[in-house]
Amino acid sequence: MNARNVQSEVSAEGDLSPRLVPAFTRHRAHAHTAAKHGTRKPADTSRAGETNLTPSEKSCSGENHSTLTHRETRASFGGRSEVVAFKFGGTSLLGAARMLHAAELVKPVAQNSSVVVVVSAMKGVTDKLLAIAQLLADRQNYRARVEAELVLRTHHDALRELGLETAAHDRVSRELDSLGRDLLHAVPARESVVASPELFDRLASFGERLSARLFAAALECAGVAAVPVASSDFVLTCDTFRDAKPHLDQTKHRGRAVLTPLMEDSVVPVVTGFIGATRDGRITTLGRNSSDFSGAIIAHVVDADELVIWTDVDGIYTANPSEDAQAQLLHDLSYDEAHALAASGAKVLHPHVLPLAASTEMTVWVRNTFKPQARGTRIGTKLPPRSQSQRDTQTQSQEGAA
Predict the structure, then answer these.
(1) Three-class SS state of 43
(2) CB 297 within 8 A of CB 61
(3) Cα–Cα distance between 97 and 52 in angstroms, integer?
(4) Which tens digits make up the pLDDT trace of 201-216?
(5) Is the dihedral of CA 201, 203, 204, 207 positive or negative?
(6) Counting runs of H as helices and runs of E as strands, what totals does the chain give?
(7) pLDDT beyond 70 at 298
(8) Cβ atoms 61, 396 nearer than 8 A
(9) CA 169 and chain centroid, separation
(10) pLDDT of residue 97
(11) pLDDT at 182 over 90
């Protein structure tokens, strides 16, 4: 698989006109406010199921626009030598302690490179939101409402455990409350609603939207200026709800308008994975287990040199290591090799990630959030020296171990 023969696999579907995107001065002002109030007070971040984290990890210290070259991209991001996209899965973001740990992985890379982060919902939250939609379909409104309130409480608990200073905590709390009002408005206590695929997508989107606000706050704790960004502001899709397809050319054009001003100011955009929107602004999702694809889309938008997919396994194996004792970790794969593994039924990555990465020769890493000292699996073309993101995160983990 090379850049020439994958173009048909990543071409935009249809010809939809772009809609307006929000002004960016608000994001920049928000980012500077966040940086100003990003210090924290001590907090007890110990939680069940997170004992594998060290104490240091639990503390808060087509069209013309598609032809931009990496050189032009880097120049627009203040001349930094590398553009890196990080994608964190739900297990990596389960609770405040894990978010703070993930933020420490971003910090050293953001000091040397332009960084964009893509986040999933906290583990289990999407399932809960889809269950709420099903309860509404079954006319069990009261139970649906109770479950929605529990989802909001989970995120407020995580915010409290981040240990932000009062001003920063109150600001993020208001953002969560605003999203909470939208969620509860979609889950009425009494009147019946039409449980359409559109409703399922709208409810499912709240997981990533809540997670992005919390992870931006975790980055503030680590001293990294960051703002949450809704991918529905620029990821343009068809209207096949629950399995929408992105229009990549227009998404790239709109996404650069949203993300470039932030990255020029050395602000890390924390972008919601999984979701997009139709031309008329209705929220869609890209289908279950599409968060890796979301990461690849955002990386494509900013012409990233690398996409680092942080998960809870050491990389890509020859077989499922939990089922096959002979499974071996694969350290380096070409696009063709990874594609062949996926075609043979191996669980590698979302099938659309590799064609998109190959189209720009973007390097893809699969690495373990909880073992950042491990190299992980690299997918790409020729084998260069270790990347900046790998050097930075491994140096950080070694310093933490010391």
Answers:
(1) coil
(2) no
(3) 10
(4) 999 999 999 999 999 9
(5) positive
(6) 13, 12
(7) yes
(8) no
(9) 22
(10) 98
(11) yes
User: How does DSSP classify residue 312?
Assistant: S
Contact 99, 58 (CB under 8 A): no
| Beta pairing class for 268-272 and 275-277 | unpaired
Topology given in CATH for the domain delimited by 7-43+53-123+208-401: Carbamate kinase (3.40.1160)
Give the 3-state secondary structure of residue 22. Answer: coil
Q: Write down the domain spans for the chain.
A: 7-43+53-123+208-401
On whether the CB atoms of residues 117 and 86 are closer than 8 A, the answer is yes
Question: Given pLDDT bands bounded at 50, 70 and 90, which one contains residue 51?
Answer: very low
The residue among 304, 326, 310 whose CA lies nearest residue 374 is 310
Pure H helices in 163-247: 166-185, 197-221
pTM for the complete prediction?
A: 0.79
Task: pLDDT band for 394, please (50, 70, 90 cuts).
Answer: low
Q: Which contiguous run of DSSP H or E holds residue 137? A: helix 125-137
Beta bridge partners of 269: 227
Express each pLDDT in 235-258 by its tens digit.
999 999 999 999 999 999 999 999
